[in-house]
Each structure stands twice: as structure tokens, then as C-alpha cells.
Amino acid sequence: MKFLITSDWHIRSTVPRCLDMTQEEWMNVQREALKQVGEIALENDVCDILVGGDIFHSENTATFECIYLVQEFIQDMWDKDIPVSILCGNHDLPQHSSSNIPRSAIGVLLNSKDVQNMNKHCVVKGCNFDNDDYGDSKYIFKHTLTIPKKDIPFPDIQCETPESLLEKYPKSKWIFTGDYHKHFEHNNLEGRHVINPGCLTKQASDFENYETGVYVIDTDDETVKWCPVNVEEVFNHNGEAKKELDATIENFVSGIKKESVTLDFIESVKKELPNHEEEVQDKVNHWIEESGL
Predict the structure, then answer these.
(1) Domain boundary among 209, 228, 247
(2) pLDDT category of residue 289 using cuts at 50, 70 and 90
(3) Structural domain of residue 39, as residue ranges?
(4) For 213-263, how does the pLDDT look when each residue is reduced to its tens digit (9 = 90+)?
(5) Is residue 46 pLDDT above 90, yes or no?
(6) Is the pTM value of this prediction over 0.70?
């Protein structure tokens, strides 16, 4: 079996703050990235494309155009006999709850004619962001923050490591993850694998020189192939814009940080938001979107 593994598309209508592009140009970047994914799938003769969550950036920025962009890609792949299976990520689910799928952009996708739900995939077992029932599957997709030990910024950050996942799922030969935006592959001495495809496009200032892409996995001969997906994006190098961004983040942090907030700051803020008035929620969500986080 040969799969194309991808995740964290973060399709959005708003232009990331770090980019100096019009909305039309940004939508074309995302469209071209998906086109390259399709070309890689055809060139490598894969049997499936597996998308491990965070297809959309947020419920507020997933417009009709964004949804159609993904539907168009999946329909094109289906016409070429390559099914696409998708998984819900934390960014896809309002309040991070699977109960909200029907009123989300990914819920629209799952009701589309040619979209496969990875939860029902016959080979690779995937579960939504807030579901952890994998059974004894040999191949699993788990949308959870997984960081190689050498890349963890703080020793007590809340995340998985490739080693911890292999220990947690001892019967799994291949574990595919999402949420961490930098790609990596990890193999242990027993020939077991943890693969994280990273983000499909560059949506943060420190990703300007980073290579985005997808993995092609052949489970028969156990090969892992990295395939770059690099679309030209124009980054904003305006020093004043950076100062403004820094000030926005500083005010954001100082205004709502409190003892209960973990080091995964943005995720903690989002969990706290439902406890506040709608006006506060809108303002904080606006700050997060403007900051490109």
C-alpha cells in the first residue's frame, strides 16, 4: 500500500499577517499548494491521500470559497481514482468538540459526495481530535501535538514525543500525527515509524525559509519519501509591522494571561473563551487571527 500523508492545511480566507499579499494572491497560493499535492499523488501512484486534521484555520475564516477549494481538490482526485480521507483537527472543531462538527466547515466536507471520513477508513484508523479510541490498529492517524525531543522549546511543555506515542500504542507499526507544523520522520530500532507531515503552506514569519511538503509512504517496502510543496509566498519585511505585531501580542498576553494558562498559550486561551461575553470572544479571536497564530 502506498499513501500520501498530509496535514495542517489551515485553509483560510484571511491573509496571514506575515505575508505581503492580496487576498486573491493568497487564495491562489493555497490553490497551487493543493494542485501540487495532487500532482505528487499521481506521480507516485498512491492509493489514498490521508489528511490528518486542521484542514481549515478557523470557523471564522473558512468561507464558501475555502470550502469549495477543498471540495474541488477532492473531486479532482476522486475523478483520478485517488480517494481522499480526512480527519478533524483542533482548528476544525468549534470549542474543540466533535459535537460541533455539523456546524463547522469540516462538517460540510464530510457531507460532500466524494469525501471519505478517516474514522471509517478500512486500513488506517484515524480519530477526531477529541477521540482516542484506536484499538489494535497497525496504522493510525492521531492529530495531537507531537514534537521530537530535540525541538521541544521548554522541558515541561504539554505534548507527545515520537517515543511516547510508540510506547502508548505498542501494536501500531505506523503512527501519523498532525498539529506540529514542522515535518519529521522517526524510526525506532524495531522498525516502527512516527511521521509528521507539518504545515502545507507558510503562515508564520519564522517559516520563510522552511520547506513545506508531504510524505509518500510505501508500507510494503517500508520506504518514506519526502516530497516538497513550495509555492512562492511574499513575506512582509516591514519593521514597523513587526513592532505593531509584537505590541499586539504583548497586550494580548498581559490582558488575559492568568495562573491557569499552560505553556500552550493559544490553546488555553481558546478553551477559556467560552466563559466570557461574546464581545470579548470576538476581540480575542480577532487578535489571534491578526497575529497569524
Answers:
(1) 228
(2) low
(3) 2-228
(4) 999 999 999 999 999 999 999 998 875 555 555 565 566 555 555 444 444
(5) yes
(6) yes
Distance in angstroms (rounded) separating the CA atoms of residues 1 and 128: 23
Question: Which pLDDT score, from 0 to 100, does residue 110 have?
Answer: 87
Last residue of a domain, one of 187, 203, 228: 228
CA distance linking residue 39 with residue 32, whole number of Å = 10
Residue 52: closest CA among 128, 137, 131: 128
Q: Provide CB contacts within 8 A for 189, sequence distance 6+.
A: none
Which residues does 30 contact at the CB level (< 8 Å), separation at least 6? 9, 11, 12, 69, 201
> Which CATH number characterizes residue 34's domain?
3.60.21.10
Residues 163 and 217 reside in one and the same domain: yes
Q: Using CA atoms, how far apart are residues 100 and 162, in angstroms rounded to an integer?
A: 30
Provide DSSP, 96-165.
G-GGGGGGSHHHHHHTSTTEEEGGG-SSEEEE-TT----TT-SEEEE-S-B--GGG-SSTT-S-B-HHHH
Residue-averaged pLDDT of the chain: 86
Q: Are 246 and 291 in contact, with CB atoms under 8 Å apart? A: no
Domain count of the fold of the chain: 2
> Residue 290 contacts by C-beta under 8 Å, 6 or more apart in sequence?
17, 248
Which one has a higher pLDDT value, 82 or 131?
A: 82
The backbone torsions φ and ψ at residue 214, rounded to the nearest 5 degrees and listed phi first, read -140, 165
Contact by Cβ (8 Å): 217, 184: no
Between CA 185 and CA 175 the distance in angstroms is 10
Report whether 134 contacts 150 (CB < 8 A).
Answer: no
- Residues 193 and 224 sit within 8 Å (Cβ to Cβ): yes
pLDDT score, position 231: 94
State the Cα–Cα distance between residues 211 and 200, nearest whole angstrom: 9
Share of the chain above pLDDT 90, in %: 57
Distance from CA of residue 173 to its chain's centroid?
22
